[in-house]
Amino acid sequence: MFNLEDEINKWKKSLRKNPSLEDGYAEELESHLRDKIEDYTNKGMSKEEAFEKAKDEIGDAKKIGAEFFKTDTTNKISGRSTLNKSHGIYPLLPNFFKIVFRTIKRNPGYSLINISGLAVGIASCLLIFMYVLNELNFDMFNKKADRIYRIVETRHVPGQAPQKYGYTMGPLAPALMKNYPGIEYSVRLANVLTTGRLTIEKGNRRYYEGDFLWAENSFFNVFDYQLIEGDKKTALINPKSVILTESSAHKYFDNEDPLGKTLKIGKMGNFIITGILKGPPSNSHLDFSMLLSFSTIINRKAEGWKPFIHWWGSWGFTTYLVLNKHVSPDIIEKDINDLISKNLPANSPTIRKAYLQPLKDIHFGSSDIEFELNAGEKNFESIYILSAIALLILLIASINYINLSTARATIRAKEVGLRKVVGARPFDLLTQFLNESIFITVISSVLSLLIIWLALPYFNQVSGKDLTLSSLLNWNYLLIIFGIIITIGLFSGFYPAFYLSRFKPSQVLKSNSTKVKGGFKLRNGLVVAQFVLSIVMIVATIVVSKQLEYVNNKKLGFNKEHLVIIDINNGDVRRNFRSVKNEFEKYASVSSVSVSSRIPGDWKDITEIEISPENKNSELTTANYIGIDKDFLNTFKSKLKSGRNFSQFHDDSTSVLLNETAARLFGNTPSRIELHAKNSDKIVNARVIGIVKDFNFKSLHQKIGPLVLGYYNNPFRGIDYFSVRISGKNIPATLKYLKNVDEHFDPEHPAEYHFLDQQLELTYKDEQRTEKIFGIAAIIAIIIASMGMFALSMYTVERRIKEIGIRKVLGATAGDIIKLLLKKFLKLILLAFIISIPLSWYIMNQWLKDFAYRIGMNPWIFIIAGLFTLITTIITISWQSVRTALMNPVNSIRNE
Amino acid sequence: MVSKALVAASTKPMILSILRGGENYGYQIIQRVKELSGGKLEWADGMLYPVLHRMEKDGLVTTQWKLTEGRMRKYYKITVAGKKELVQERKQWLSVHNVLLELWKPIPSFE
Description:
The complex is a heterodimer. By secondary structure, chain A is α+β, with helices and mostly antiparallel strands. In chain A, the strands form three sheets. In chain A, strands 1, 2, 3, 4, 5, 6, 7, 8, 9, 10, 11, 12, 13 and 14 form a 14-stranded mixed beta sheet that branches. The longest helix of chain A has 38 residues, at 426-463. The relative contact order of chain A is 0.09. Chain B has four helices and three strands; from the N terminus they run αβααββα. Chain B is globular. The A-B interface holds A 22, 24-25, 27-29, 31-32, 34-36, 57-59, 63-64, 67-68, 70-74, 81 and B 8, 25-28, 44-47, 49-51, 53-54, 57-58, 71-74.
């Protein structure tokens, strides 16, 4: 039975299969068909006859498509009308935007991945670039930078190796200024190493600070730090003046304006705040929280300052000179050494010479200089490494981008009707790709700026810098960046056009013959390389995290929990420590208290001495020394292996405990040893009363060395800490109690206390930073590698589309097809995995060497890294695979 | 019958002129042309629509689906640009036409 509707529907379906029919066209033709049929049936034909006649007259799908092409006046590649060719570029600009937008809309997935992958690559590269720029421009904000020099001394103590010092004697600078005309300005600075820490009081708040600088008022003649408030010329002239940085101002005065107000500093009384300083910037080798006027101490007789500063045998004053233009530093160096040799006390055996170090050399060139003010000091190597990494990231991201564009272009060329491609003018092809690629590159760059803006706060936190986007607003940098972006855009436009033009027309029309030799291996190799990189970064991140976990949780041989360490900063407290101890012990939450000269994991250097067996003139071995009391072992819960602890029932003033490592040096059961001080001739003849089980008294970077635990009353180092073990309950109240007791005995200084476990964690802050950086690097590596994999999969799938169609016809399920596609990529991942295992193992082994106590690299780490990469790959290519697997095989087997 | 080239060249001005008189749908346009030419011009069904679509893309006409007489039909309407284009086409056509008319002024050998 002839059913008109069914027949019409069948006819419509066959129309739809023709890819050259646009949307809505089939409906329009259907409407036309029905009109025709109506006409014919009105004339008297049967429905069937009318249908057949109408159908014939309209023609089959192919003919309709052919007619479509014949009248098509649009260039298939560029989308431009071929009617009027001589319009030039300008009228086409709006059209060009439309076309590019349409292209992006048509392939949102591909465009998104392409743009974001490139954006991430550009953003990473730019961030590193900004960091490197900051480092290379260290101290360059000073206008007189190329005339500023720092005086560095070389001191030679006979019998020892000469040593360089970043500071010099007090009277040198004023004498130079007075006698030698070549120097425009000089400034002397002193810091906590020379003058000690200061208690700062505001109202009832007390702070104990060490990051200040004493500076002469010529400071602002030499350096160009900015003052937000106050007058550079006068702020440091008067004694007892202080300039606060913005953050200190906030710290002491909250939101008040501190200018003109006072702070009580040390024993010197009230200082008046004469300025607020901006910064200092992150690329300044001087880092300070406040500047105190040098004039305060220069004539101060108390504490012996005046004679010290004017004494030619002194030290500790960091001195900078600004030379007049065209004056050679060599001449001034000679003048300096003349002055020194003239004025040095004649009987000092130490030979002191000085040289001038240019300001711009301070940041990278001071690795052999001790006792210097040098914040953020670095090795120049790190700059090379960082720059190389930045370029590598950019290169990989660009190559991926070009790959993806090429893969996409190949596919589109077929979709669009290859007859036109073959006949298209090469110029059209090229301009089309160029337009698109430059446009997309520009969008990626804009997106990368957004990424940088979002990531900058976090990046600054991790890197410790204060980078801003405005640092890039320099013509030179912008030009370079712009040039690179345009190059990427141009290249990624040229390459697909070039790639397509290498095909013979006949090859292109047969959709499975788009084989071009050479590109294949390279593309695969690149994907493998990117995955190797990703796996290595993941392994690295996991290893660092695990090592950190390990060091924070490892049994150290003593109990670090709930241990409050209170610094002893006052001679009275040191003398009356027994009373203080008693007061501490009275509190219920306090289970034990001990005094010692140093503590395990101390942030200060642990005293070194040399030890040898008694009376024998044998070699001296270096050991660490801590003076303790009888409660030390109990407070720290370290175990005695043999012998006895210090006790009040014996005279233990010359007794010592050795740790196992030290004892082993002397045949395991020494009874007496000799202790030699390192910097003097003191020798103590000591009696060994016991051996303590080894515990980690230094960071886990180092193996446990020999340790001597001596009496608290010893000639090597006096006591510096109370260690208080408290219960875990009601900690704030306990701390308050301890603080009050300490300040009762030492009213001058605010109580300084830390929890030992928190303090120990800080020892590994470099590794914590590394953990963060590796994590981020791993993410970036994966993003970029996924992009590469996406391009490869898109390309591969397209090449095998006919094969897939045939398989489906022969009965393969969607699942089979997906498995088939995955197999190929699995091989690549497996290869990447195999390469990356030994590589990452070697790299992380080297890093772990830094730790004497380290984790073993469990094979699980590599497996997890590999699995993670595998899953990412599967997700990346699944969209492609699923789409292909679900496609109608008819569409893929039919050619055009 | 009229040559393909002539048919092709005249399609656009004809369509624009027909639409100038009011909006129309494809089938109706074909019928109109057939009427006007007395059957001498019979446009192939499949030939019309590509031209219409091209003209829509070039902005010479706009389209709208309308429900008339119980069926959805796609109606074409001339735009301002289309009207301008028609003026151009008319000029060009007439220039050719006038030259030919001049050339074909009664010459004995023609008939």
